[in-house]
Amino acid sequence: MLTGDTVLGSGTTMLDHPDGTLTDYLASLERLRDHGSARLLPAHGPERQSLAAVVDGYLAHRRERLDQVRGLLAAHGPDLDAVALGRLLYGEGSGLPEGVTTKIAAAQLDHLHRLGER
């Protein structure tokens, strides 16, 4: 399966919110999982033997991060914005530019909004 940047050979994909939504991305991952043991041929990184195994890891990572966001919203209140959330999620020493962490956080907040949780 040629996955381009949807599933990488190593690491995870960054969504360029608002052009890319976490909701759509998660749906794409679920569809890719249906291809089970297909060999993964990503745009970046090494090929992998089982697409489903890699996709399951991606989905688990995204679900864990969303649970972390839910916890931060509970602790800091519903008015927590993407800039502040990005700082809380990744910290000052993450090495990621604030613009990147803000886009990631915005995608997570948007997804929770689409789920009716925010």
Structural class: mainly alpha
Record the strand order, biggest sheet: 1-2
**Percentage of residues assigned to helices:** 40-55%
Radius of gyration: 15 Å
Which CATH architecture is right?
4-Layer Sandwich
Sheet with most strands: 2 strands, parallel
Do you know the CATH topology?
Metallo-beta-lactamase, Chain A
- Mean pLDDT metric: 92
Give the SSE string: EHEHHH
Low-confidence stretches: none
Total strands? 2
CATH superfamily: Ribonuclease Z/Hydroxyacylglutathione hydrolase-like
Just give the CATH class: Alpha Beta
Rough shape? Answer: globular
User: What is the total number of structural domains?
Assistant: 1
Strand content: under 5%
Helices, by number, come to 4
